[in-house]
Design brief:
By secondary structure, the protein is an alpha/beta fold. It has one domain (about 25-180): Rossmann fold (3-Layer(aba) Sandwich). It is about 35% helix and about 25% strand. It contains 7 helices and 7 strands, in the order αααβαβαββαβαββ. The chain has helices at about 10-15, 15-25, 25-30, 50-55, 70-85, 120-130, 150-165, and strands at about 40, 60-65, 90-95, 105-115, 135-145, 165-170, 175-180. A 7-stranded mixed beta sheet has the order 3-2-1-4-5-7-6, sandwiched between helices. Helix 5 links the parallel strand 2 (about 60-65) and strand 3. Bound molecules: S-adenosylmethionine (SAM). S-adenosylmethionine binds near residues 42, 44 and 113. The site of S-adenosylmethionine has 20 residues, from strand 2.
């Protein structure tokens, strides 16, 4: 069963400089994201990764910041104005039972950071991400160990594989269960 959705009142806890010291977003994302790419940050929350993603894709790239909660997207919108990156980022409101993204095979890289455990129907979720990724596209899934049990993460991976993904690499640290999934 899905965990409760993290409320927008906790946005400050998700987007602060101290968290950057723990997550080290540049080290995490820089190896995978190149200028010109289209990147989906699904469950983007208040946009902890958004400015960095916009910098990494550069002026010819595009970032889709997607979240279930309009309040989170409103916070991201303010951040885009502040950081002057509105032109590279579009906001997308999902639904609880569907990402509601149209088209297929146009995303190079997707990140779902600390969000899959909140998804009501992970089966559909992994299939939808698989559909929108380009062949050869990558999907970074990271779950917090303090919050998500190993068997829950293993179940997520079973569903990811059922959707068609293979595991390119994994990194289980003290704080994270993390995998890079690959669409052939
Ligand atoms: C714990 S927060 C993490 C936010 C962000 N990824 C980060 O690490 O700062 C989880 C986010 O996932 C969003 N979420 C939950 N279920 C979702 C779904 N089915 N589609 C899109 N977003 C969802 C929530 O609204 C919340 O903003």
């Amino acid at each position: 069963m899905a965990h409760a959705v993290c409320p927008a009142e906790r946005a400050r806890m998700l987007d602060n400089p101290l968290r950057s010291l723990l997550v080290r977003p540049h080290r995490l994302l820089n190896p995978y994201i190149k200028p010109g790419m289209t990147v989906l940050d699904v469950g983007c929350g208040p946009g902890f990764f958004i400015t960095l993603l916009a910098e990494l894709v550069g002026p010819s790239g595009h970032v889709i910041a997607a979240d279930l909660q309009q309040e989170m997207l409103d916070i991201v919108r303010e951040k885009l104005k502040r950081d002057n990156i509105s032109g590279r980022v579009s906001l997308h409101k999902t639904h609880a039972d569907s990402l509601d993204l149209t088209g297929s095979g146009y995303i190079d890289f997707t990140i779902a950071f600390h969000m899959v455990h909140e998804v009501q129907n992970p089966d559909t979720f992994f299939s939808e991400v698989y559909t929108v990724l380009k062949p050869g596209g990558l999907f970074l899934v990271s779950e917090p160990r303090g919050h998500v049990k190993k068997n829950e993460f293993d179940e997520e991976i079973v569903l990811a594989k059922k959707a068609g993904f293979t595991i390119m690499s994994d990194n289980y640290s003290l704080r994270e269960f993390q995998v890079i999934l690959h669409k052939a």
